[in-house]
Structure formats: structure tokens, C-alpha cells
Amino acid sequence: MTVRVVLVDDQPLIRAGLRMVIDEDPGLEIAGEAGTGDEAVLLVRDLRPDVVVMDIRMPGMDGIEATRIITADPEGPRVVVLTTFDDDEHVYGALRSGASGFLVKDMALPEILAAIRVIAAGDGLIAPGVTRRLIERFARSPEPPPAPRHRPPDALTDREQQVLSLVGGGLTNHEIAARLVISVATVKAYVTRLLAKLDARDRVHLVIIAYETGLAPLPRSR
């Protein structure tokens, strides 16, 4: 099944470069392009793509607001933010708005293509390094956003705790499967079970829970 992608970026050269690479991937195709958040919202409603690759800073409606509107539709596409700006406010804003992934433009193109496929398959993905900084934000904040209510770690099996620890480390389902020598389908089943057991809204909340419960140690302050 071909993944239909909408590119959203106010720089035509960026869109052209991504379009050229995506067009060469037999599993992906460009459904449309937009240069602003407003255009993106209208285009997505019309084309119904599988994945939206969204920039953040654009004229008019920015990518974070456009992501919030697009993901508010239960039948809408999944959104992966691809931006130059990987500061804490943009990361947190993008994930809070409903984005399934956060990537930076200096990543290698094959990694970006792989991330689009991961997002389309229903997984979540945050660029390496960004996950740790996201957690550092929660560790530093005197009044962090309320965490989802969840049972203590001993409510989980040893294997579920292993999977949660690896999710907290920012690993994808495929990477977790390779690490634990199990199938990707089994990993997905574990993640689904964790979401239910821990009353977590999404994968990002699982990352936070992994740190809160000590299954993934908080980074030391510098």
C-alpha cells in the first residue's frame, strides 16, 4: 500500500528537495503541497492523505496550530513535524498539538523517509536527542504538566517494563523488536497494552511515564 504524503513548508526549495526524494521511494507518493498552515488545513480536508510532513514557522497560521486542527479529526492523517527549530518550546508545542513525530531538517534523507513510513504505520518517532531534551524539560520544570494517572511499575510484567524502558529511550517499535529479539507485531501488542494499563494517551506519555517511574533514568543536570 502506497503512503500518500502532503508536504507543508513555506520554502519551495525545501518542498522540491523532499518531493524529489519521496518520488523515488516506491512506497511513498506526494499527494499535494502547501506553503502555509491555512493552505495545509484545506488541502488535507480535500485530499485525505496518510501523513502530513509539517514545518513550524510559516506565514499566517503556523505549523503547530495547523497540526492541532488536522489531528482534531479522528479520521485525519498523522502529522510529523520536520523543522529547523528543535528548541524546547517547539518540540513541546508540536507534541502537545497532536504530532506523531518530531524530526529536524539536518537528519539524513533516508532517515526522514524511514520516519514517514514509521509514522504511517501507526508508530511515533522523535529525533534522537530531542527525546532526552524533552524529558529534561519535565525534569527541570518546577510545575510540570499533569502526568496521566497510571498504576505503579509493579503492575507491569518484567517484559512490559523492558518495553516501556526502551520506549522511554526513544526507540521505535522496529528497534525494540530487534533489541528484544521479538516480532514488531509483538512489540505493538505490548505498547497497546502499556497504553491501556498506564492510562496513557499516546507514546509521548509513555516516554514521560518511563522516566517518572525510574525505568528510564532522568539525565543528570549539567
Automatic annotation (TrEMBL):
**Xref: SUPFAM superfamilies:** C-terminal effector domain of the bipartite response regulators, CheY-like
List each copy of the Response regulatory domain by range.
Answer: 4-120
SMART domains referenced in this protein's UniProt entry, alphabetically: HTH_LUXR, REC
Q: Does the keyword section mention Transmembrane?
A: no
Q: Which residue ranges does the record assign to the HTH luxR-type domain?
A: 149-214
InterPro entries, alphabetized: CheY-like_superfamily, NreC/VraR/RcsB-like_REC, Sig_transdc_resp-reg_C-effctor, Sig_transdc_resp-reg_receiver, Tscrpt_reg_LuxR_C, WalR-like
Q: Which residues carry this modification: 4-aspartylphosphate?
A: 55
One Pfam family linked to the record: Response_reg
| Keywords of the record | DNA-binding, Phosphoprotein, Transcription, Transcription regulation
Keyword check for Metal-binding: no
Q: Which PROSITE patterns match?
A: HTH_LUXR_1 (PS00622), HTH_LUXR_2 (PS50043), RESPONSE_REGULATORY (PS50110)
- What is the protein name given in its UniProt record? Response regulator transcription factor
